[in-house]
Structure formats: C-alpha cells, structure tokens
Known about the structure:
Number of helices: 5
Radius of gyration: 16 Å
Helix content: 25-40%
CATH superfamily: Glycerol-3-phosphate (1)-acyltransferase
Order of helices and strands: EEHEHEHEHEEH
CATH topology: Glycerol-3-phosphate (1)-acyltransferase
Largest sheet: 7 strands, mixed
Shape: globular
Amino acid sequence: xxxxxxxxxxxxxxxxxxxxVILAVNHSHNIDGPMLMGTAPRPVHFxxxxxxxxxxxxxxxxxxxxxxxxxxxxxxxxxxxxxxxLGNGGVLGIFPEGSRGEGDFASLRGGLAYFAVRSxxxxxxxAVLGSRESRxxxxxxxxxxxxxxxxxxxxxxxAGDSGGRRTRKAMDDATVRIQExxxxxxxxxxxxxxx
Length: 195
C-alpha cells in the first residue's frame, strides 16, 4: 500500500494492542479492505465474498487469513470462522454495509451487531477516505497512484448493552448504537482530514 499510494494513518493507537476487536470500516472503493490490511497495527481477517477466492487469489487470500463468505445465504461456516478469530483474540474486519456503496454507514446489516454482541469484542470505527477520488487516475478501478488515502481509526466502544442480552431486540438496539457511533466517527474523520 505504501509503495503505490500515500496512506496517512491517524489514530492507529486506538486499536487495542491485544485481545479480540472488530474493525468496522466504511466501504466505497474496492481498495478499502486491502488499504486497511496494509496499514492496520494488527493483522486483520475480513469476511470476503466467496467469488473473490478464484485462481491464484484463492491460496493467497487463505494464506493471509481472510475468510470466505457466501453472501447469498446464511453462511454458518463463515460465522463460525469469524467468531473463531475473535475467540482466539484476533482482529475481525467488517464492512457493516455489506458491500461497496457510498461508504457513509447509511444502512447497516445486522452482522456487525451479531459478532459484537455475541463475542463481547469492542468495535473500532474506521474511515477510509480518498479512495474514491477520480482526479489523476490512470486506472479507473484504482485511486490515483501515489495519491493520498486517509485511514482514520476511532475510539473503541462496546456495542452490546450492560445486561449482555442476545435477543433480537438487543441486536436491533446494538445496530442503532453502532450506526450512531460509526456515522459520528465518519463526520469527525472528514473534518479532521478535510475530505
């Protein structure tokens, strides 16, 4: 990442140095996941759509600890693998919106709340800004080479309530809390970086 672009990493110290943690990342460009993996202070395991695990990418993605997920149905193996990462004290990266979009956390899926409440792992919001800028691009699918991309880590927070409930209502409430925190972090990151 540092050879092709100029990532500016802010607040990486906010990621707990040990123990399970979930990085909740906005997703507006296909480079956001690799950018975070290349700049995070700890190894990150992402749930990645199974369609990406083809040809030479399959052994590469598996080798760097990425997790295959079938997005068309409830993928119990992927859920088990993700909870295993957290159970072993690792870092799980999640795009809470599910797929690439505006990257504004406007509509979250329930997966992030489920993993956070079920594992008890803190959530660290992450804003990747600048990956969608089109000025100076030689390859339309990538940010401009040597262009600046900001990766801004926020404060860790607990998504569940103090009672440790795992009911449907508890998950819905956690999703609302998560969305509020992620949206606030994105606004702060934009102010901080001027993007």
